[in-house]
Amino acid sequence: MHPEAPTPLTARKASPLKGVAAVPGDKSISQRALILGAMAKGQTRITGLLESEDVLNTAQALRDLGASITRTGPGAWDVTGAKWQSPAAPLDFGNSGTGSRLVMGAVAGRNLTATFTGDASLRSRPMARVVEPLLAFGATYEGQGPKALMPLALHGAKDAQGITKEITVASAQVKSALLLAALSARGTSRITQTTLTRDHSEKMLAAFGANISVTPQGDGETITLEGPASLIATAVEVPRDPSSAAFPLVAALIVPGSEISIPAILLNPRRTGLIDTLLEMGANITITGRRSSGGEEIGDLTVRHSHLKGVTVPASRAPSMIDEYPILAVAAAFATGETKMLGLEELRVKESDRLAAIAHGLKLNGVAFAISGDDLTVTGMTFVPGGGTVPTHMDHRIAMSFLTMGLASLKPVTVDDVAMIATSFPEYRDLMKQLGAVMEAP
Ligand code: S3P
């Protein structure tokens, strides 16, 4: 799907960024809309779907499992559920951890076999965290080595029974996989997660008619789901993705004189950790028009260039901004003082080892930092030197984060390959250009 040769890109000091950043649909919600639609009776109409490689790969995998999925217009998709069947060939999820892991859950509850594979990045990510707990339903698997790497064959349960399980890993993907398996299991499943993670699956399952309830449990919560559940197709309106908005947002904060608006962004409180942190750092972000869309809270942001100051980001905030640490590290480089980001262990198992990738990118661009255990401290500076060529390690968020740095650093910043940006934000380059950013081939 990607050209053999990498496509490097250089971002250089920009004049003020101005205009409207209309970012595409939320990736997490887009993935879930397709998957639940493919499991439901009837036709699910989705609007605002993110048409990125990750989401399109999930759509193809769901077709391979038997669902009918068609695009009727920009962001408008119809999904008709079906009884799933064992696919003839391996399901290729490309770069998508979410697509593959959630579909693993759905397959685990059903009497069928599927092989899961993906690109080099996805094939290096641990699947044991997902498939091990799925064994409790009666599923079995064959993966590669103790981390259960892909290619991974998953044999769904012949007669899945509801389970009671506590999960301590702070992953919405793991939680969601268990919930999707529980849909096909007989009886009640009780899934306790000891930390709160994004709750899009729970909300959407309720919208599709599942009998699901959530009760607080210590610092986390218990989700109770009655199975077997027959989901009923429904309309899904996908809000715009705050994790994609993070890039123009931080760009506007660090490029002097900028003022941009970011309309209709998802503001689910389990996704707003970056905005909360930037506000603490002194960012000039105003939120207006808070309203509800498709069962989720949204609002409009206005962002102006700001003098940021370093803060400490507690580990407890990590799940609500887990994908935003690379761009926060860039914002922190331009802040006064130190920004301490605590409890980043989950960053090591993302599309790349993001902690290592962030550190390397900072070093190559002359920014001082320290890593102690799972904590990262970035020392901000008035003038960020830049000048580095950053290896992106097949990680879209590393690519977009360091391009953002180049818009405000003294020397331009180059990233070695921008191909992976298409996994989550294909419009990124055009959108940034429209705002006035300068990004060109080196
Ligand atoms: C996601 C959950 C997070 C996040 C990923 C999307 C989801 O992963 O990093 O980009 O849609 O559930 P984990 O659940 O593994 O933390």
Explain this structure.
By secondary structure, the protein is α/β, with parallel strands linked by helices. The protein folds into 2 domains: 9-25 and 239-440, Enolpyruvate transferase domain (UDP-n-acetylglucosamine1-carboxyvinyl-transferase, Chain, Alpha-beta prism), CATH 3.65.10.10; 27-237, UDP-n-acetylglucosamine1-carboxyvinyl-transferase, Chain, CATH 3.65.10. The protein is built from 13 helices and 24 strands. It has a 4-stranded mixed beta sheet, covered by helices on one side. Strands 2-15-17-16 form a 4-stranded mixed beta sheet. Strands 4-5-3-14 form a 4-stranded mixed beta sheet, covered by helices on one side. Helix 8 (242-254) packs parallel to helix 12 and helix 10 runs parallel beside helix 12. The two termini are 23 Å apart. Shikimate-3-phosphate binds at residues 28, 98, 171-173, 176, 198, 322-323, 346. Shikimate-3-phosphate binds next to helix 6.
